[in-house]
Amino acid sequence: MTNLYFGVGRQPRRGGCPVRIGPGVELSAARQFVTANDPSPSFLARHQFLIYRLFSLAGLIPVGAFLVVHLLTNASVLAGPGTFQSRVDMIHSLGPLLVPIEWAFIFLPMLFHAVVGFVIIANGLPNVGSYAYVGNVRYTLQRATGMIAFVFIIWHITQLHWLGTPFGGGKFDPHHATSSAAVVLRPLLISILYAVGVLSTVFHFSNGLWTLGITWGLWTSPAAMRRANWISIAVGVLLGGAGLGALGGMRSVDIEQARAIENRMDDVKRMLEGGQSPVDHQSRPGAVPISGTTY
Amino acid sequence: MIKAVESAEHSGGAGQQAVADHGGNGHAAAPRVVRVRILRQDAPGEESYWERFEIPYVENMNVISILQQVAARAKSRDGRRVAPVAWDCNCLEEVCGSCTMLINGRTRMACSALVDKLLEESGDEIELRPMSKFPVVRDLVVDRSRLFRALERVKAWVPVDGSYDHGPGPRISPESQEDAYPLATCISCGCCMEACPQFTKIEVVRREDESAEAFEARKKTAFDAGFVGAHAISQAMLFNGHPTGKMIADERLEALTSQGGIQMCGNAQNCVAVCPKSIPLTRSIARAGRAATVWAIRKIFDR
């Protein structure tokens, strides 16, 4: 009868091993196993701890780290279109490496974080109505802002980075960083949606920083958690300010003027690269018509 | 502040509603009756239904004494004879952990839930429901075997079984004792699991042709795939901090990093907020997180 175990191709689990006391006992033990209906846990179930820890880590590095760089870069527009353009040029100096880098270190880790995040959300049961504690409100907000951030980031990348016009406003042009972004953000509704998206993302990151510290065991006592909370608040305020500052900066910029600065910088770059003479920016084939106007 | 229905105080008559006035006008007028709404269920898997009861008010009642009165009368508020409401209780002093239920929507012990305070919070009626994260056996009685299975999973004990003399145990410093004592006050009431948004109900229904052992095995497998809960994480930390208990520290960490382990915590911190014994559960969880971090690194690089 013992062969029945191996007959169905499964190893007995802990405590499920038949003990030969008598034929009857063995039979019932075997039956217990067969009817126990427990397929061995899946790959994902067996590596749940590792997956959740990688999920937590991905939120900080590289996704969170990118968020910090991204928002601070954008906020440099407050120092003028020229400053922002030079920051963008610095990023784009990576050239053909840029696309593989953004996929490997930004898009794929973000997608992984999002997929595991949705699994976590689906398995939770928010109960802030019955237990309205601060921690529980933050738990619920963390999930809500995560979902808002997901939708926002998909829209943000698809519209500004990949497709442009189908989602309104045109595409981001790395050679005309400020002016092309300013054109996209000109409608008030778009700017409001961006503000909501950016603030949700910033809350999700800075609150996530605090929970990450608990998850990995950086701060363990309630007093340490309270102190760490100030770090999380400071990061949130700083990044929220940077994000809103970038939005305000892009909106308040004079597009014509920014365009002129960017064209001058573009000319310098072209001369340095290939010794070419300045091009006529009005009729240059690469100039992207934005909202019906070629700047 | 609660609403006071003046007319009900004077109109009198059997079954009339009387509402407590615990307001700031000096002497509180005692309510004449206490109204209770109980979510009942006749057996596992059956539909639940509300039933309302009314019992005479007595000073300093707790929810257990209300349930005793409800059982003694076995009559609903509209006068129908009904089966007495079933509930669990034992010590009546918040030590045994058996009378946990949802009182006015929140998990707590019925024995330490004082009626006068509840009426202050909720006005004229007290609501009782069975815990929502454990399978209902009958009325307010739930099957908390998953709670005890979680303690088994993390080996929440000191491994000193045997018939021979182990000699005296190692000395424990007063600091270490003070650190461990709060964790040792856990009464396995299940409040932390009930309030946890990451802890969801697992109910395994026995099949008709299933033996008791097979059913138990299936239940264990189902429970082991779910979250262990804050209490088990805290107990694992209690025994990992004990000089003898620490001998199987790795086995506990293995359990805590398996499916449904420490990683399921979502840091809502409801557990510590509802714990009737004020156990620093989030400190235990963070310590377990740190131990799991170190243990995972050791597991990867030391083998």
Describe the structure.
The complex is a heterodimer of chains A (295) and B (303). Chain A is an all-alpha fold. Chain A has helices at residues 3-7, 23-35, 43-46, 48-60, 63-75, 81-92, 98-123, 134-163, 177-185, 188-215, 222-252, 255-274. Chain A folds into 2 domains: 3-35, no CATH class; 43-274, Fumarate reductase/succinate dehydrogenase, transmembrane subunit (3 helical TM bundles of succinate and fumarate reductases), CATH 1.20.1300. Chain B is of the alpha+beta class and 303 residues long. Chain B folds into 2 domains: 6-138, Ubiquitin-like (UB roll) (Roll), CATH 3.10.20; 144-301, Alpha-helical ferredoxin (Fumarate Reductase Iron-sulfur Protein, Chain B, domain 2), CATH 1.10.1060. In chain B, strand 6 and strand 7 form a beta hairpin. In chain B, helix 4 packs parallel to helix 8. Classes of the chains: A mainly alpha (295), B alpha+beta (303). At the A-B interface, helix 2, helix 4, helix 8 and helix 10 of A face helix 7, helix 10 and helix 11 of B.
